[in-house]
Amino acid sequence: MRKFDGPLVLTMVAALCAGSIMSAQASPMSNSMAGPVGDETFEGSFVCLTPLSPHDTAPIVCQSDINPSLPSFDFSLVWHRDVAAGTRQLDRIEVRRSGESEPFQTLEPITSDVPIKIANNGFEALDLNFDGYLDIRVMQFVSAGPNTPYQNWLWSPTTGKFVANRALDKITAPQFDADAQEITSQWRRSAAEHGSDIYAYDGTTPVLVHRETDTYGANGICSRTYYDQIEDELRKTGTGACDDPD
Length: 246
Fold this sequence. Notes:
7% of the residues lie in helices and 44% in strands. The strands form 3 sheets. Strands 1, 2, 3, 4, 5 and 6 form a 6-stranded antiparallel sheet that branches. It has a 6-stranded antiparallel sheet with strand order 11-12-13-14-15-16, with no helix packed on it. The protein has a 4-stranded antiparallel sheet with strand order 7-8-9-10. The protein is mostly beta strands and 246 residues long. A hairpin with a 4-residue loop joins strand 3 (73-82) and strand 4 (87-97).
């Protein structure tokens, strides 16, 4: 993960008050779509500067290089506190190219209401669709089980902006496998039923292609049901015993 050096940290702290971020390491780039197409081997990173205390309501500021062909991006997560619930609610995310004072995009509305202890409301910059450009997401809320939902925006090289992806928002607790070009989701419907889903992209839309559902009967025995996408429909394709928990 790339670390901010001393001068840049000081600059970012000042930006929290001034509403802008100035980077001495990156020069402004007027055309965000310039440069080569995405490189699927590119592994970017992000780093965030959080408010100095629980009582500081300044924006959370994150920075990421989403692709070698683009300047660094600064993300200002503007939020307010729900004191009674003990949560931080995001109002909007302002996106700037490093070295520019005005955002070139503002992401809103945002559904992100999570406990203060969740760092940066779960903000991450990672390649969600395996195209070589980092995308961004934030946690929507913390669920009682593994079904944690996220709100996602994919970078569009065509428009030079982040685009909301509602289909991706519906996938809970997603894990991204760039080698397999697949998304895996672990879910729990009840104490007696849980499972995992596998999605693959059809264009920019993640499509459910495989499901395994584990169900516990009254006798405590677990059975697994398999489903696969056949002719654009998820169909039952087999049954068997659940894996040994060991």
